Amino acid sequence: MEVFLAGYNVDTDVLNELKGKGEARENLTPEVLSAAYARISRDSRPINELRIDSQNEVEQARRSNSSIIFKMGHHSVAEHAVFNLDILGVSRFAMEELEKFRLCSYTEKSQRYITLDKDYVIPEEIKETSLEKTFVDMIQQQNNAYFELLEKLKVHVFQKHADLAKDPKKHNLIEGWAKEDARYITALATESQVGQTINARNLELLLRRFASHPLAEIRRLGATIYERVANVAPSIIIFHQTNDRDSKTYSELRKMAEEMIGSDAQWETGENEEAQVQLVEFTEKGDQMIASSLLHVASGLPYEQCRSILEKLSHDKQKEIFKTAWQNLQLYDSMPREFEYANLTFNIILSSACFGQLKRHRMSTITAQPYDLKLGVTVPEAIKEIGMEDFFRTLADETNKVYNKIKSENPLAAPYILTNAHRKRVLIRVNARELYHISRLREDSHAQWDIQNISREMSRQASEVMPLAFGLLGGKDQYNDIYKDIFGHLPSVTETALPATRSIK
User: What is the pTM of this model?
Assistant: First the structure.
């Protein structure tokens, strides 16, 4: 057996320094990996030799990539080329578009841990128009409110958690609670930054979607990213221009919906009556489907026969199937893959701040409506406790007036002025395995309160319709207690010696 380290991400400053110390290197491109791996299925030579050929013949490698992707349609070879992108100075609103792409990795500047400054994006759609001053004035009011709330919240949380505050090492944690609640009054126009890791195939999709986007900031972001990667990997980023699918489909769907439903249609229940989390669809007999699939993978029998056998088993015997599947799990382990056969769909009304966390669960299917003023705002409990709820809601009302003024002249730019407290509806479909992941992470006591509330209610409703499958559901801080309730003892932990740290010379 042989294993070669084919390549890894290297900081571009290091690559530029390498170029500067010697003659120009044409093979400092991820395209050589795509070209080499593309030949594996039709060339009998060892992979490491194919890579060497690609390194020595970069132009030939590029021609090979273009032919394989464009003529043969094998786009998967582009997935072997990976880029790290530093993305700075984009709005929180634009981040919602950037982070829609599920097969990528993101680490974003957190408004929960970092004290915000007053940097914000003015949408191109309203720059140098009569709306610009109105927009800027409102942003400044929101930013001033943020700092006013932050100071009051700091005092409040340190007093509320006086015992914890005795330890200076906990001060950053406590102050973070103040920051995460103060940020609810800041606008979606607030600047943020993110580190993104993305392969070339998904990058091509991103560029195509962004080129077709109606919002100027998104189009500019896409064009800027393309400028950075085009010369590095021209042969594997081919279909990046705007197209009809991305530029027309949803606008045509909106037009059709208006004609079919009516533009003035209202939902049937008012703001106070509509549930924040509502399970709208789920796999019927999901417990039985998962249990049958566990029997299926373990027995070698056809699924239909496993289902027939299961239906004859008592409730306790069916429960035993789940317990057997769980008995060796630790809190960090995922559910067996068979849990993916049962699905649940939730309609959720949530704040922008909460959506920023829910959208990270990209193995789910998530679609969102635009922000809707009729859904109101989410006011953190701590703001109510310091007597600033009226102040908060008054500023939210002022924000709504500015939003409506901008919307009347330029609907595209209006959402930038909305705050992290404003709400939207989201439809999310998860399988049972993914809901366990959401629950472990978001119901944990260290998670932010807004997403804790949402995920806890998702878990409650899911457990009602699939009580067997979700018997182990809960945050990771609760895992040992839940496990003990089921098995009568704590999960066993295999002690393993950590490898000695080797120095790198």
Answer: 0.86
Q: How far apart are CA 33 and CA 253, in angstroms?
A: 40
Judge contact between 469 and 339, C-beta under 8 A.
yes
Domain boundaries, the chain: 12-80, 85-221+382-417, 286-339
Name residues of the chain where pLDDT drops below 70: 1-11, 22-29, 31-35, 37-43, 57-78, 110-116, 235-236, 263-273, 494-505
Give pLDDT, residue 239. 73
* Distance, CA of 429 to CA of 362 (rounded, Å): 11
Q: C-alpha angle 204/209/215, rounded to 5°?
A: 140
Closest CA to 234 of 11, 13, 26: 26
DSSP label at 327?
Answer: T
Amino acid at 435: L
pLDDT at 497: 41
Cα separation, 78 vs 181, in Å, equals: 42
Contact (CB, 8 A) for 196 and 362: no
Residues 443, 474: Cα–Cα separation, whole Å: 6
pLDDT value for 13 = 74
Q: Report the helix count and the strand count for the chain, using DSSP H and E.
A: 20, 7
3-state secondary structure of 244: helix
pLDDT in the model for residue 502: 46
Cβ-based neighbours of 147, under 8 Å, separated by 6 or more: 182
Q: Which CATH architecture has domain 85-221+382-417?
A: 2-Layer Sandwich (3.30)
